[in-house]
Each structure stands twice: as C-alpha cells, then as structure tokens.
Amino acid sequence: MTDVQEELAALYVLDALDGDEKEEFEKLLEQSEEARRLVAELREVTELLPFAAEEASPPAGMKGRVLGSILGERTELQSSSVTEAPLPVQMPAAQHQPAPAGETARTVPVSRGSRGWRWLSAGLAAAAILLGVYTVQLNERVGNLQEQADAAARQAAGLESRLAAAQQPAGTARMGEAVKLSPAAEDVVAQGLATIVIDSKGTHLVVQAENLPKLQGTEAYQVWLIKGDAKQSAGTFESNQGSGALYYTFEPNGYDTVAITLEPDDKGTQPRGKLILAAPVNKI
C-alpha cells in the first residue's frame, strides 16, 4: 500500500472521508487483503481509546450554554431563506502570497496527500497505539493490586476470627512466658514479642512483630516452634507497613525456641528462607 492509501485507511476508520473518497477506498478494500488487515488493526486500536481517557466533570453551566447555542442557531436557520456555501479551507497566514495586480486573491485548500497531513496522521496513529498499550498495562497492574488487597483482607479476617474466639469466656486464663524476639542478623532491624497464654481451651502463642522487611511477590513470614532440631510450623502471616501478628493454638511438646523466617511462599512445612527473629523460651 502507498503512503496515501495508508492515510486514507486511518481516515476511513475515523469516518473522516467524504462520499467520493469513501466510495473509492471501499473499492480498494474489496480488492486488497492488506488494506482490509490494516483497517481491522486500526479499528482495534481506536476501540481502546475510550478506556485511556480520564473521566472529567463538565464545567458548571456548560449544559445550558450548549443548549442555548443550539436552539439559537436553529432559530436563525429557520428564519433565514438563504443557504450559505461552506467556507473553503484557508492556508495558514504565513503561507499567504499577495495576489498579482489585476488578479483576484484565491484560497488554496490543504491536500490530504501533503507531507504535513501524512505526519499528522502518523502522529495520531502512534499516539493511539501507545494509549492502547498503556491501557493494557494499567489493567494488569490494577488486577495485581486487587489480588494483593484480597489476600490481605482474607488474612485480616482470619486473624480477627481467631482473636474473637480467644476473647470468648474460657474459664480462668493465665499469662505464661513473654519473650522479646531479637534480630537474627546484623542487617535486620525488626523486633517482636512472643507471648504464651494458657486457659481452659488450651495453650496459645501470640506473636507480634514490627519493622519487618517488605515482602516481595509471593513471600510470607512464617512462625516456628522449635524443639532441638525439630521445627513445627505455627502458621504464616503477611505484613502491613512492616507490622504483622499471628495467633496459634498448640499442644505443649517441650518447645524451647520461637522463631520467624522470611519464606518464598506460605506453603513450606520446614524453614527454607532467611531467619529474621528468634528467642529462647522455657520448655512449653
């Protein structure tokens, strides 16, 4: 296809061709597979443009001004018996040349096949493609953020239900050991507290931590009850602005250490990641 035909394809998709030009280009579409493919691609791009525009509220009074203008023009047209001919397209002021003596000045229409028109069409097509790509990327980011928000909401709901169950009457409860969780490496600035609570429902571990490193991707924090070399998972949690908590009910088995690790995901049955916080406890 020629440059002019490609420009006509863009104008055809935008419904900007007049009757003769449109009829001639549609004849080209019947004969050229390349032209039909280009028109289909341009239509896909233009369909994405509305999604790239930001919503905006109209200025106050705009509706009244527009309707008033339309009704006023309609009244003038009905009362006039003369139909005005459309004005010709004028050349920019910088391109006007004075008419020679004795000749009448005339206007020169801008050709759609000119270099300026081709650059304008190419620029509009490039802008449309960029807007379409940006819209797709934005939708993907919104989907990822929504998944993260849903995961955080599920974790918060689970923690609230456990805390609510722990607050139900359960006879006499007594506070067991409370230990400060210390950083396990020099580059860790996190800190935490592990508390044992014992009541008629059993033995419970409450872990709280803050200043935790930011999670990436599917990472999660996991709490461990350790007895010698044996490690029992007490569950996983995610952090919110560097803070997180966990409530866990367990059977005492002589555990001597409480620890928190940064794991690649929440599916591990044994530690695989970096040790963040730990503290020894009396055997529970």
Brief characterization of the structure:
The protein is an alpha+beta fold and 284 residues long. The protein has helices spanning 3-13, 19-31, 33-52, 62-79, 115-166; strands at 174-183, 191-199, 202-210, 220-227, 230-237, 244-250, 257-263, 274-280.
Verbal overview:
The protein is of the alpha+beta class and 284 residues long. It has two domains: 1-50 and 115-168, no CATH class; 170-280, Sandwich (Immunoglobulin-like). It has five helices and eight strands. It has an eight-stranded antiparallel beta sheet with strand order 5-4-7-8-1-2-3-6. Helix 3 (33-52) crosses helix 5. The longest helix is centred in the middle third of the chain and has 52 residues, at 115-166. It is elongated.
Output the structural class: alpha+beta
Question: What is the helix content?
Answer: 40-55%
Strand order of the largest sheet: 5-4-7-8-1-2-3-6
Largest sheet: 8 strands, antiparallel
CATH architecture of the largest domain: Sandwich
Q: How much of the sequence is in beta strands?
A: 15-25%
Shape designation: elongated
Q: Helix and strand string, N-terminal first?
A: HHHHHEEEEEEEE
- In total, the number of strands is 8
Radius of gyration from CA coordinates:
36 Å
Count, helices: 5
Number of domains: 2
How far the N terminus sits from the C terminus, by CA atoms, comes to 81 Å
Broad CATH class of the largest domain: Mainly Beta
From the 3D structure, determine the CATH topology of the largest domain.
Immunoglobulin-like
Average of per-residue pLDDT values? 77
